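Re: the 183-residue chain
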Amino acid sequence: MRLTWRKTGQGSAGGFYGNLRHRHRSHPSRGTKLFVFGDSYVDTGNILFPFSSAEQFPYGITFPGKPSGRFSDGRVLTDFAAKHLGVKSPIPFSIRSEVGEERLKESGINFAFGGTGVFNTLVPLPNMTTQIDLFEQLRDDESGLISNRDVHLSLALVSVSGNDYSFYLATNGSAQVIPSSSP
């Protein structure tokens, strides 16, 4: 399957994203970064515990050939999104000090942690609010790792799956009392 850029109406979301994609391809020096927030669907290696299932076989056998902290035997949504956008896959937040500032400045950062949710879950790792707080701390940091220019030229990938629901049900919640949104 090959995707091509096609300009749509200016007022539509398709027009906005089409223009953004076109601008990125036309001006590669204006490199876009990817900042990621979420759970295991987008976590590229933030959970460094040796007892984490993502650090054990069979995870990673397809990519990168060994367990890498991804909750997959290969690539996760973040990897596919970065490739599609033509940007480098973002560095996991947990290993930012190991890769050096230069590499961080040319790449985005992945703040996602497998097992987390929008709210606290059974996994005692940064939930969505904390992930956004970590992003803001790095943005306000004197190092300039995340500049205003980065924010304006970058994209955010947000992924939230069922961990909040699972936590609710695991702590004696009931599917019958899950609040529904009113129209």
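Confidence is low (pLDDT under 50) at residues 1-30.
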